[in-house]
Amino acid sequence: xxxxxxxxxxxxxxxxxxxxxxxxxxxxxxxxxxxxxxxxxxxxxxxxxxxxxxxxxxxxxxxxxxxxxxxxxxxxxxxxxxxxxxxxxxxxxxxxxxxxxxxxxxxxxxxxxxxxxxxxxxxxxxxxxxxxxxxxxxxxxxxxxxxxxxxxxxxxxxxxxxxxxxxxxxxxxxxxxxxxxxxxxxxxxxxxxxxxxxxxxxxxxxxxxxxxxxxxxxxxxxxxxxxxxxxxxxxxxxxxxxxxxxxxxxxxxxxxxxxxxxxxxxxxxxxxxxxxxxxxxxxxxxxxxxxxxxxxxxxxxxxxxxxxxxxxxxxxxxxxxxxxxxxxxxxxxxxxxxxxxxxxxxxxxxxxxxxxxxxxxxxxxxxxxxx
Length: 371
Prior knowledge:
mainly alpha; 19 helices; single chain
């Protein structure tokens, strides 16, 4: 039951809300704040203990930024065409350039690790807070911490990480009907990661084609992304030659060896997102605009799955966390208690692993250029 629907107001409404949620909303808000602080502490400790940027991908993106810093066309630079067989423009590369000039690129990347991880985590919780209250924010935080795919991606400095920060921001503008802001945020996505980020948002624009108020925004978006999309289309065969197999990375190899087991292990608590997503599709007519938008992001991005399955799972951490938190806030108290046991256990297990990896210095921190 929804308090607003019941017509309850004032103190009576607040009391009823507490009874429905089982706790004072301020309690869940406090837990959510503590989760964000924990995200900051974890990423800070991981960066300090590692003493270097996490993940091998950063070295590639730094090499592209160094090409821009030398006055070369980084998009078509030697390292890009040799490694990717495909032009690569990213906003992130340009963000790294000033620090290449200053000679502190690795230090800046370590700062970005902390910023990205905390900001993505906090932005997701803020979005859940706006739509599902403090209870929803708390659930989304627990789910993110119980998902290895999220931490694996969000703590690295690469274009995908910036995508994960921009996506919930773009969704917020979309749901609030702020067309200009949505256009700006989706253009930032497109110019940050090309087709990889475009698959997250294209369906959102597609469904708006029927809305005359959105037609100008949709057409403008299509026109403004042409400078980045035309070169990408021309070199598309090169992209397929690089990413069309099943062994582009060790993670992708593991996925294709056992897709179900890998997905369950990698997503952890957010494995619940799969049945929640399918249930939302089955009950599409009863879903509100928030749940529908999240479903559209997941459905539209499915075209990435055959080519980049491990990255697809990483991207889904955000819509799955929000969609699953939305679903959990609508469960009865008995259902919530039953579901809380495995979800909290998953949170504790995965979170303990993050701290163990941090304490033992086992984050992947290659110090040399391997490209």
